[in-house]
Specification:
By secondary structure, the chain is of the alpha+beta class. The chain is 18% helix and 31% strand. The protein has helices at 38-49, 78-89, 165-171, 227-230, 233-241, and strands at residues 10-15, 18-23, 59-60, 69-75, 94-102, 109-118, 125-128, 136-147, 151-158, 203-211, 218-222. Strand 1 (10-15) and strand 2 form a beta hairpin. The longest helix is centred in the first third of the chain and has 12 residues, at 38-49.
Length: 248
Amino acid sequence: MNSPVTPPFEVLYEKGPCICVLKQAGLLTQAPPGIDNLELQVREFCKRRDGKTGKIYLAIIHRLDRPVSGAIVFCRNVRAAQRLSAQFRERSVRKTYWAIVEGVVPEDSGEWTDHVRKIPDVAQGEVVAAGSDDARPAELSFEVLARTSTHSLLEIELGTGRYHQIRLQCASRQFPILGDSLYGAQQAFGPIVEDPRQQHIALHARRLQFRHPMVEEQVDVVAPLSSAWLENEAWQELARQSSREIQP
């Protein structure tokens, strides 16, 4: 009897051609050959577990930035991938994030609308005027789950999925995400790493809700927090100050 194959990630949900997994911060969603990435890990796990040989189909439906952790879904056949991709385009997929930001967000809840664009030839974006070249609207809604004198814990729902959107919209309001030195954060987050590209930031894709593309079923996936979150002093204080019980 073959021994079970243990994946290097946590499987949050799997049914038919859909598999949702927990992405670790510091890991690329996709990368060129020779560079470790989540797509490769999921592909190799499915291949070994199912006893397949040769290439197998695995579609990337959406991505998470390298320093971001949380729930992400892949599809294992073309029809499922097409149908689920359509849900993302139609914005019927609910994507909820948790973020620890530097500073005290004064409003209890609200909506942020900006125009953003990627800076050419640089792995960075910027907030720009609406009429600027390549500007695209960026929309999100937020709720403050907890505050201290130095940090805020935000629950964010994306209305659009732009390049570095949450990071940009928070930083442009002087609330950079903890650990996100690219966008002005002053404090570190997560383990000390030699390669700055593997740095973690306090942004976590907490919840993913969509309609299963092949059966009549609503999928609701919640991604647990990593040790980088649970061991962080800012998180621990925010969890104590929260007006509602926060499950890690």
